[in-house]
Design goal:
about 270 residues; hypothetical protein yedk fold; five-stranded antiparallel sheet; 15 strands; globular
Length: about 270
């Protein structure tokens, strides 16, 4: 899955890197994007690439999903499994015509060892930003999110490859620039086309490093989260910081699936 990522590009950088027709809206620099965060996405609804702000957690107005408690509250899935995205009405309604890109400079995954969960930051070796394949929807959102953007999105995931496979079984779908035009094309995409667009992507240039467990808390949003935790002494300091955050926020060190579920988001 993809439960946290990094989006620190400026509007000028995004316009240049993704060849947008005009400068996108300014968005905050995020070192720890969590479900429900307003992020910048790239669409081309009229055939021209544009930037837009969207909440991470898809809500499709004409599709209602009940949560596990049966309360009838809508869930807001942040991920969609690319292998089965055409199998469910929720996803079929958006994958055919409403596709977008989510610019990122890295994403986090957690390695589970017994009771321990250690976060890792995955980036390109050259640190160049990349784009994650995503889908979007627009319309009224749940009452808890009123007053914010009415555009929502979810990131596609695939089987983990490269270095990511050593710590997790899923990862976001990363598209190369040669796939952007077809992915953003508003023309309907058939199930038979999806594989051709998503397959053949190289993940050989991805590298990862262990980072602070502070990333587990949505309250932490600073560049120090990107620093590598390498030696035993640093690991001990990391544990102390984790304990301090737990006292302050009651959630530090948790993998995103634990905190996100409490906020009404679903991880696929």
């Amino acid at each position: 899955m993809c439960g946290r990522f990094v989006q620190t590009l400026t509007a000028v950088e995004i316009q240049r890197l993704f060849r947008l027709a005009s400068r996108p809206p300014e968005s905050e620099r995020h070192f720890n994007v969590a479900p429900g965060t307003e992020i910048l996405v790239i669409r081309a609804p009229e055939g021209v690439r544009e930037g837009a702000l969207a909440l991470w957690g898809l809500e499709v107005p004409d599709v209602r999903a009940r949560n596990a408690r049966g309360t009838g509250a809508r869930l807001a899935p942040i991920n969609a499994r690319s292998e089965s995205i055409f199998d469910r009405p929720l996803w079929r309604s958006v994958i055919e015509r409403r596709r977008c890109l989510v610019p990122a400079t890295g994403f986090y995954e957690w390695r589970r060892r017994g009771k321990n969960r250690d976060p890792f930051l995955i980036q390109r070796q050259d640190a160049v930003p990349f784009a994650m394949a995503a889908v979007w929807a627009e319309g009224p959102v749940s009452p808890l999110r009123q007053g914010e953007s009415t555009l929502t999105c979810a990131v596609l995931t695939t089987e983990a490859r490269g270095v990511v496979a050593s710590i997790h079984d899923r990862m976001p779908v990363i598209l190369g620039p040669d796939r952007y035009d077809r992915w953003l094309d508003a023309a309907p995409m058939k199930e038979s086309e999806l594989g051709a667009v998503l397959e053949g992507q190289s993940f050989a240039d991805l590298v990862m490093r262990r980072v602070s467990k502070r990333v587990g808390s949505v309250a932490n949003e600073d560049s120090a989260l990107l620093a590598e935790i390498a030696d035993a002494g640093a690991a001990d300091a990391d544990a102390d910081a984790d304990a301090a955050d737990a006292d302050a926020h009651g959630e530090a060190g948790h993998a995103p699936s634990e905190t996100g579920a409490q906020l009404g988001f679903r991880f696929d």
